[in-house]
Amino acid sequence: MTTGHRITVERSEDHVRVVHGGQVIADSTRPLVLRETGYPARYYLPPQDVRTDLLIPSETTTHCPFKGDASYWSLPDGPEDAVWAYSEPKEAVADIKDHYCFYETEVVDDR
């Protein structure tokens, strides 16, 4: 039996933090979690919860047939292309529009 590709976006109550070089780059208690067949769950953080002033724009772009075209940013002193966002995502994942996703995130247990 073959299963098809599935992608969902949900609001999460997790507290997500991104720390790089001892500096908090992002801290959110209102992330979106995107789950996609064959990939780990990814947190998408609203721009208000991200230190965008610390992100270094990259020339890298990628295309996903399910999400759309992504733009990338690097973190100070690397790694490169560690952050991405979709400015015009596909309708099925429209909620992630302009939210930032990081390869490395930490879920903070503050319950």
UniProtKB/TrEMBL annotation:
Domain DUF427: 16-104
A Pfam family: NTP_transf_9
InterPro entries: DUF427 (IPR007361), DUF427_sf (IPR038694)
Name by which UniProt lists this protein: DUF427 domain-containing protein
